[in-house]
């Protein structure tokens, strides 16, 4: 390694990035935090009238796409809308039961919210409706305070309040650009959580399938199993047989649809078919007198306004519970709606603005809570059917709402004889697909920590409660981030096939380490949480390297190069650590060299004067240059270094 | 860029690190988490008897260094020990007052714990004693439940229980290797927290200085100010004048010691001098009859055993509060003790094992709680005096304990006339140095976020309570880590002076971007918390780049290179994000290229088959190689790319 080469390569100094005024930095980092998608981009350099129009279109997207709507689109949307309506009616009734609400509220919820979403939503595929997990959550959280069967009126009022607060919370998250809170529900959390919730919902259906009258209010495995097996003498075989038959029917239709995607409608129409078949069966055999429970009278007519109910609930002593339930169910519903909307948008390659979607979903729930609807979002099953049926725009939601309206106006008496057990079977069949054990296996294969998160969520939901599972999973996910920072990976680097590229020896076992120089790669920002760890760990690396050199009787260790490429940031505790480290290794007559510190790090090292402590000449742009410089010094200045060492040794004695 | 060069450089494939069995990985990551300092290293390859001896020496370090102890050392330790004793007596009495305890307990606490620490501790400089902030915390937390003046016996019992649980918690943290919890108190948190606590303690001293009899139990600024100014008519000018004189004396001596470090003893002896002067003054002028409160009778004799008191307290209804107080004060005392011990160890370049120190401090508090002592640790002021007085080993603690013992046995009557106002002045003078406004200014200059943490801790302590301040500061510190991961920095890279080194254009404004290729650097692990952000942000970079290219009518954007050097890890949400990203940019006819993914990332990309999706041939060891390959493709395959693009365009229509 010649003098010339070393000097040529050293030309380029590591730079402190140009300083910017404080408020500029603050503004840009706030912008990155809250407006990463730059929603104002389109407003730039436009006249005011145009800005107003764009703003209106931003909040009410239908204004943007309606003028371009064609009859071709309508034909597609009409078919899709009718298809999802056939799913919406039985599902609506079933999920209302899950939420311990009058069945007709499930139908109400498929009328008003879809209309609102069609105006405000930006997804072309999302089909609006009620969902199982939040429905269950409502029962389990509110049911603890008010018995839904004994005190139905108060319970319904509280559910409306819950829906209202969920909507307000959702819209507020969107307006305050806090949509990223939903991101903290990781993929693994959602897999585990959904699986757990589906298990719990399935277990709850044992009540309907076995025709039990009394059932536990607990949603956990233990109390359900106890409730089922202490009542063996009350099981109704008629109900059980009917339930199993319909379950089988639903599974077989799904199996066919899965085999050939063209037959998606078989599985889409299966729930409605089951309801019709079941109702006819009960009507003709009078099975309702033999232990098969039926829905009974369904109120005819459109959604009654519920503003006064909502108002009454605000004075209730249970309002705090309603708010808490609203926030939790609101977040979960949001996570599902946004994840579903985004997945299908990626499929069709258009863009969805998460925060805008939150506002749309929030507004539809606020409107819903004033018109006797309960919590709605974009369920995966219904949206998938909508997509498969070839929907083009949100008009399919309008078509569905119209179909539900007609049902409400004229067809409710037809559901009188519909057996509850069929509804249970429909829920069970829908839920079992949510238990995604394949995803869990995939998590285990790819990322053990994600698997732990997933299983904790599952176990927490099944054995504890839905909230417990959620809290545990989120806590473990956050712990992972903290652990990543608290225990960053450090690794020794070596040169790849003697080039100037240096990489971790762990990843590239053939990389060659450089005699007399220890090159360490740090893998995370140097923060208070890892400063002492890094001090210990780096000292240990140095000790180990010196031991190794002692055994092989090679040169002494003279240089420690810290590769800072992956150190994204540093705080004052981190800088103190570096200062201490420098002192410690100076005493051991080892020189500290930095390679490739990033912009943020350089800024802070500069302001804290650590650059002067290390010396700008000991900070290099690449590890290669640093090694070359050290090698150059090793060859030319050896006697001097030795002298310093013996001086220092005197000092110690 | 010729074909040959491209092929030569492409030789080295990015490798998936060699797979290790699951339990091996688990073991090594648990080891890194809990045993980063490798404490078992010295035990390796030793016979059992030697292992036993080493183990004993590990837990009782005095066995290790006592045999090497010399008379030379003792001379130094004796002088240091006498010096710190002269500080320990007045400070002990003062801080006991701060904790609302009988003054003599402060002396007890400087007798037993230092002896225990001398045997178990590994620091050569730490001087053991009580500290102001935990003393204040004890008053404010326990005082809420039990009035220390009306129910002294119960209060003392609870303080002993608090000390016991603090000791148990400290020792448990050490034994369970959970010492890193202390690391979560960042430098900035401690600066703000200490400053706030010092402010609060100073405010409390207004009671003594102004000679007030009734005073608020609140520790916050508002209630203290209110308490002081509603009692203006009760202020005693004699007390005030005396207090100001002593404060002035203490400050002037400190000023001299600061000017010339050789005169450290002037400031070290000042508190004892003040006590003697104050006592003499009161004795001769009978000022106690003119509004100057005095200590009064101090019990003679050594520490009485307090096991039975401790036992009684375990049956108390306030036990939970004692446990809570113990844990909080225990952590704070630990943080101070360890930080102090470590700082001086670095000065003298020896090593301190944090977990071992925790066990030592914990044991000394457990022993203390059985012998009428309250919470002790290694206070900064006393340790600094010890260090300056030239202590060599922990024997200086034994000398101090002996001096305190003599005081307890024979000299307590001398403190009868000591005015309380002198003690207040001693506390105030000690506390004011803890308000480290220079450090706060430094934080502002170096790291704004740390400044926010520091100020929040300060404001929280001063206007809320000590716990509030601590919780807020820790929460903000953790939020910072989460924000770092949730909003990672992405930046465009360019080549440095046309070499193969690529760096962020933000840091090196002169770096040249490469036409047709967008190189993006990601600065943090790709986790669930940032997956959607990164998707949005990368799309925005691509949009902006395309807009720029459109305006300049240059080549289309053909390649996006993601520099993964700083991506320390990835989880399954992150992998899904990359998959979606690839789909999205594939549709835009842009090729995704990865550069330098690390070991962990490669492992997971491999297991999730994402490597196959991207193609191993599109993953490069360095950004330089990736750019060369893309440039090579741009020059040779242009027509083909264009064809693909127009095909895709057809597809879209």
TrEMBL record, chains A, B:
SUPFAM superfamilies: SpoIIaa-like (SSF52091)
Locations listed in the record: Membrane
Domain STAS: 507-630
A Pfam family: STAS
Family matches, as InterPro entries: SLC26A/SulP_dom (IPR011547), SLC26A/SulP_fam (IPR001902), STAS_dom (IPR002645), STAS_dom_sf (IPR036513)
Segments crossing the lipid bilayer: 78-96, 116-142, 154-178, 184-203, 235-256, 263-284, 327-347, 359-377, 397-416, 423-445, 457-483
Top-level taxon of origin: Eukaryota
Family annotation (PROSITE patterns): STAS (PS50801)
Entry annotated with the keyword Membrane: yes
Topological type in the membrane: Multi-pass membrane protein
Keyword Iron-sulfur: no
Keyword tags: Membrane, Transmembrane, Transmembrane helix
Protein name, as recorded: STAS domain-containing protein
Organism: Rehmannia glutinosa
